[in-house]
Design goal:
This protein has helices spanning 10-17, 22-31, 48-57, 78-91, 106-110, 121-126, 131-134, 154-161, 168-177, 193-201, 213-233, 251-261, 264-269, 279-286, 298-310, 312-321; strands at residues 36-38, 44-46, 65-69, 96-100, 136-139, 142-145, 182-186, 204-209, 238-246, 270-276. It is α/β, with parallel strands linked by helices and 322 residues long. The radius of gyration is 20 Å and the shape is globular.
């Protein structure tokens, strides 16, 4: 992935800060000796390090969160959301670690990493390889622990060893956790021991849903499972729901949106962002590019989601009220 093709522009930064002109942004960049680069489309782009410097100077504090994308159903867009969130968060200057737990390794391939000769989570757990040794740098501010088919043995190993699922991932991540603002874990669509361990290590579980009956069933089942994990392992974490691949032209989208709205508990957990259906996302993942390099409205949706997860929206609102 070519980071400089898909970074924040001075206009983006002016919008985040609010009440400041693009010209003022250029003056700020100059006063801090923060250079801009010119993209192939002639846009001026700010490096992630430059964005971070300005946001931190203005009082923004990056989170220290572990987020996992989970649902007991395939094909809802967990991997594409993990990929896009990790990429955009890095544009905002966040230090991001993406962890691919799914044996299919789709997130790993999305980042253009060949994991055949890399350590994966099976090696971290079974062979006691340090997490730091498994990390692959993808681009500025974005690292990856890849996955491959070797991770298909994870559940067998966890069962045979009677692993402490509550602390297994949390303890492994602990030495490097403070190196990152955001750790994003892409999970397989299953109820299994490794997902239980990921859930116990998460600060927030994000459940993507699509407008179809099987996804709604998967939502119910997933929430039931994470509720059980909270009780059995006595862990404290939150869960959020994100509406993904929504097409307002399709009748089912409206039907299931109303069904979700009728459940007060679910509505309280719904992230106030709708990710619309857009072919550019699938093309971006296939071409190992960011959606921000391509044309398509989904870049607006992913940007809003990223600001919500990083806390930029709440910070911006708080600043406007003060």
């Amino acid at each position: 992935m070519d980071q400089i093709k898909a970074a924040l522009t001075p206009t983006d930064l002016a919008d985040i800060l609010g009440g400041i002109t693009v010209q003022a942004i250029y003056k700020t960049l100059k006063s801090h000796n923060i250079p801009t680069e010119t993209s192939p489309t002639k846009r001026k782009l700010i490096s992630p390090a430059g964005v971070r410097k300005i946001l931190e100077e203005r009082g923004f504090k990056y989170p220290n969160q572990i987020i996992s994308f989970q649902i007991v159903k395939g094909g809802v867009g967990k991997t594409s959301l993990s990929y896009s969130l990790a990429t955009r968060a890095a544009h905002y200057g966040a230090k991001v670690l993406a962890i691919d737990i799914d044996q299919q390794g789709n997130l790993t391939r999305s980042f253009g990493v060949d994991a055949r000769d890399n350590a994966v989570w099976l090696n971290i757990y079974r062979d006691n390889i340090a997490v730091s040794k498994a990390i692959v740098n993808v681009t500025e501010g974005l690292d990856l622990i890849p996955s491959n088919l070797n991770n298909s043995r994870l559940d067998v190993e966890l069962t045979q060893s009677s692993a402490n699922l509550k602390d297994m991932i949390k303890d492994k991540i602990a030495p490097i956790r403070d190196n990152y603002d955001l750790i994003i874990i892409d999970c397989p669509p299953a109820i299994n021991k490794i997902n239980t361990a990921v859930t116990c290590a998460s600060d927030v579980v994000i459940i993507p849903i699509n407008p179809d009956p099987y996804a709604m069933d998967g939502l119910d089942f997933t929430i039931s499972e994470i509720t059980r994990i909270k009780k059995d392992f006595k862990v404290n974490f939150d869960y959020k729901i994100v509406w993904n691949r929504f097409d307002q032209r399709e009748r089912l989208g409206t039907i299931y949106m109303h069904e979700l709205a009728s459940n007060k508990d679910y509505m309280e957990k719904l992230i106030p962002v709708v990710i619309r259906t857009d072919a550019s996302l699938k093309n971006a993942v296939f071409d190992q590019k960011s959606v921000f390099e391509l044309r398509g409205f989904i870049k607006e949706d992913i940007d809003r989601l990223t600001r919500e997860i990083l806390g930029i929206n709440a910070w911006k609102d708080a600043k406007a009220k003060s």
